[in-house]
Amino acid sequence: MAFRAGCSLATASRVLNRNGPVSDGMVRKVRRAAAELGYRPAGPTAGKLGQRPVVGVLIPSITNPVFASSLSSIQNRMLVAGHGVVIAQSNYDPGREADAVASLLNDRPTGLILTVCDPLTSAALLPSLPPTVLLNNMPTQRFPAAVTADNRRAGRELTEFLIAMGHRQILFVSGNFVASDRARFRYAGHVDAMHERGLTPLDAVEIPFVSGYEELDLREAMATFSPTAIIASNDLLAFGAIGALRREGFSVPRDVSVAGFDGIAIGRLMDPPLTTIEMPDASMGATAASLLLDIAENAAPARHLDVAYTLRKGGTVRDLTQDPS
């Protein structure tokens, strides 16, 4: 293999074991040669018959339907490619990401698919990694391979829709921004749209992602800002906001409109159905899996793939321009 790649045995060993400095060009040559020869580095269980190569996947929460959908499509794609999948979750905690990734590395994966809180801050905490693709995070210098939807543009588009429906006081309710750059980008897009229309954006209400949805208390925010509409940073939080409003005697959408992000299936079953930005979670997961295999096994260059989202107009937003009373 070293001969095929045009390098020394020591260089090939450094690439395959990820334990020394090697140029990006040489890394691609060695990986290509390994793929052409059908070589896989021996892991701690390589001697077991039927042992399959694996990829590692880090997600914030295994119970969130968004990540469950992505994970299912990753597993299906990897099954076709003959790979197993090992999973870790961070619980939206930046401090837990390094330990979660370390647990994935114990299985000597072919590569990693990571959804982190913020790749710019997470990078400093993570060790040297095999080929890695970010899922839902924007690419960085360290992690140039990524599959994303444009969350900032989605936040702007959803806000523009509400403004067109006559809403001017719009409250943004979000999980903590430090735990999700997706939520932060969505709020930034909301702020962009408000400024573009000459409106003053309200400060976001931030709550923990893992807990707090069912106990969400919007009394103070409603009394202070009197919003006619609420944007939640994801659909689960939108459901929590609707419950909080109803506990205070508000009707959705008669008194307050509510919209979210993600487009999870349960939102279509609500009465009325939730207005939301629908993200292509399943196709994004499959795309990330294919990109990782291409990089890890074919030495393809890292690249950023942007996947389209859609605005799904449900029944939780009231058109104030038709009935302002």
Automatic annotation (TrEMBL):
Domain HTH lacI-type: 1-47
GO molecular function: DNA-binding transcription factor activity; transcription cis-regulatory region binding
Organism: Rhizobium gallicum bv. gallicum R602sp
Coiled-coil segments on the chain, per record: none
Keywords: DNA-binding, Plasmid, Transcription, Transcription regulation
Protein name (Swiss-Prot/TrEMBL): LacI family transcriptional regulator protein
Source organism, top-level taxon: Bacteria
Cross-referenced Pfam families: LacI, Peripla_BP_3
